[in-house]
Design a protein that fits this description.
- The chain has two domains: 19-163 and 343-354, no CATH class; 167-327, DNA gyrase/topoisomerase IV, subunit A, C-terminal (Neuraminidase, 6 Propeller).
- It is elongated and about 95 Å long.
- By secondary structure, the protein is mainly beta.
- It has one helix at residues 301-304; strands spanning 19-24, 28-33, 44-50, 58-65, 70-76, 87-88, 97-104, 111-116, 126-130, 136-137, 144-147, 151-158, 167-171, 178-179, 185-190, 196-200, 204-208, 221-226, 233-239, 244-250, 261-262, 271-276, 282-288, 294-300, 307-308, 315-316, 321-327.
- Helices cover 1% and strands 38% of the residues.
- The strands form seven sheets. Strands 4, 5, 7, 10 and 11 form a five-stranded mixed sheet that branches.
């Protein structure tokens, strides 16, 4: 992996001060500083940005314990790592192998399907497993036993929500990066599929996720905040082609992330004059009529025009010459800072420290037919 591999697959944006973490199918992983080129080893199953002290990014794992001859599940954080040192998610053994792996930036816990081999002496050869039952432990923990029978494959059944609660996000208007260190403007508490709305001075908007790797050029940003689908954008803009001022109110109807959508005219000379998300949007409009008479009035843009499509040009503000437009009302409103609570996940009934587990399927009196020959030695990996 590296920043200088022009012909290979794109992974993610990064900076030269970031560290990269790579996980391998044998259960080993390591970190290294971002560079032009770095060799992490063979059979890579996941690569991402690693941040020191990050206790929210949670890795969910199902692996075959080669030493104990059983399938195990664990959830862990990879904090306090040393560059170039090799760590292991599972007990190091030639027959240990990863059956399923996922990286979750906000502690999400999904359900997976467990498929046993055809020769397994069990009544049920397919069952699901919920990671939400597991407590998040340290990187050296062995995990909880799922079954002692051979596992053919593990795949995703359904995505889950965060088990950590929401995360407070700020935007640093100096570096342009999202952060959780209370630097810059507070954007709000984010959970699950929440998104960030970025409005640019050029008259476009963009939706993104709230991963801390995201950066937005401060000189180009007009406003940034948490996205609410039912919150209309209200603006006054100038059309460079018609040479007139227009007002519009619209809801964001697009769902594509990391793509800019122009909501004012793209003609030369067009520009965004004022924008507000708080209602009502009040402006002071100063105009000059044909008789050279100058007058000022207060307009309520929220009542001036109904909500229209985001591609609409809107309604013409006035037929007179515009001398000045001044926003009188609040622009955006301030989100309430929510103190993050650390949620304690109770150990499940299959935790080794809480007694015996009953996760395994019921054993039959007589064994099933022998397992058909599988193609290849590696199990099918889950989504990651």
């Amino acid at each position: 992996m590296g920043t200088g591999l022009k012909k290979d697959d794109y992974i993610t944006d990064c900076s030269d001060i970031d560290d990269i973490i790579a996980f391998r199918s044998d259960g080993s992983y390591s970190i290294a500083k971002v560079s032009d080129k770095h060799f992490f080893g063979k059979d890579i199953i996941y690569v991402g940005i690693w941040r020191k002290g990050d206790e929210r990014t949670t890795y969910n794992l199902v692996y075959w314990d080669g030493a104990g001859k059983k399938a195990m599940a664990k959830r862990f954080n990879a904090t306090g790592l040393i560059r170039e040192k090799v760590y292991n998610m599972a007990k190091e053994h030639p027959k240990t192998k990863v059956l399923y792996f996922s990286a979750n930036p906000n502690g999400e816990a999904e359900k997976v399907n467990i498929y046993l081999s055809a020769s397994a002496n069990a009544r049920l050869k397919q069952f699901d497993y919920d990671f939400a039952k597991l407590a998040i432990k340290g990187k050296t923990a062995g995990g909880n036993q799922i079954t002692k029978y051979n596992v053919r494959k593990v795949d995703l059944k359904e995505k889950g929500g965060s088990t950590l609660g929401g995360v407070n996000i700020w935007w640093d208007d100096i570096t342009g990066r999202l952060n959780g260190d209370e630097k810059g403007s507070y954007l709000g508490e984010f959970n699950g599929e929440d998104q960030v709305l970025v409005i640019y001075k050029e008259g476009s908007y963009e939706l993104t996720n709230y991963e801390l790797i995201n950066r937005f050029e401060p000189n180009e940003v007009y406003h940034i905040q948490k996205f609410f689908a039912d919150l209309p954008i209200q603006c006054v803009h100038y059309d460079g082609k018609g040479k007139h001022y227009f007002v519009k109110r619209f809801l964001i109807e697009t769902a594509t992330q990391n793509k800019k959508f122009q909501f004012i005219s793209e003609e030369k000379g067009s520009k965004l004059i004022e924008l507000a998300l708080a209602e009502p949007m009040l402006i002071e409009l100063t105009t000059e009529n044909k008789k050279k008479e100058v007058s000022s009035e207060e307009l309520n843009i929220t009542e001036f025009i109904e909500i229209k499509g985001w591609k609409a040009i809107g309604n013409r503000l006035t037929a007179d010459k515009v001398k000045k437009i001044k926003l009188l009302s609040e622009k955006y409103g301030e989100p309430e800072v929510i103190e993050e609570e650390k949620l304690e996940v109770k150990p499940s009934s299959d935790d080794p420290n809480s007694g015996s587990t009953n996760t395994e399927p019921e054993k039959l009196d007589k064994p099933d037919t022998t397992e058909p020959k599988q193609s290849g030695d590696n199990p099918q990996m889950g989504l990651f």
